[in-house]
Write a structure and sequence with these properties.
Layout lengths: L1 H8 L6 H9 L20 E4 L2 E3 L2 H10 L7 E5 L5 H7 L4 E6 L2 H13 L5 E5 L12 E6 L7 H5 L1 E11 L5 E8 L4 E9 L12
Helix pairs in contact: 1-3
Organism: Mariprofundus erugo
Keywords: Cytoplasm, Methyltransferase, S-adenosyl-L-methionine, Transferase
Family: Belongs to the methyltransferase superfamily. L-isoaspartyl/D-aspartyl protein methyltransferase family.
Amino acid sequence: MRMVADQIVARGIRDDKVIAAMMSVPRHLFVDSALSSRAYHDCALPIGCGQTISQPYMVARMTELLELQGSERVLEIGTGCGYQTAVLSRICRRVYSIERIEALHNRARQNLRAARHANVMLKCGDGLLGWDEYAPYDAIIVTAGGFASDVWMQQLKPGGVLLLPEGAAGNHRLVRRRKLARGWNEEYFDDCTFVPLLEGVHHH
């Protein structure tokens, strides 16, 4: 509750659904037990395999920028430990999430099961290819920094949004693109730093 008050509401997150989701998802279930004392701190934390769980504010900010109403089907590129997935699943109808690192995919599955999230489908695969089987989506959220795959726009419904941290090495900016009948419009938001968006699948 203190995390939500100090790091999220105090910084201008206004969407009641996002605030309620951040209140209800136990963040400590998604980090290694050795780091659980820092689970609610204002920072990203390592989750192994060179990946991170994003800072709480960034999770809230990205979720808010999707402007979810509750009926949406959302594709997430980069499950990580499953925390952003869990927050999304509290607000939309269903989340489809892809993770390229098998060890993290397996951990996310355990974490989401422990946190009892039933409206989530997980896949270990290359996020740059999207998830054609369940397309089109109302929204696509990308949790690694880089440049958009053409496939993502194809897998969006008209009127749907793609949100990603765009840019080169560690220098990213949140971009929201809305798919129109022809082309799209785009808006720019916060500067941020994310782990790099990579192709392929990594099996241990």
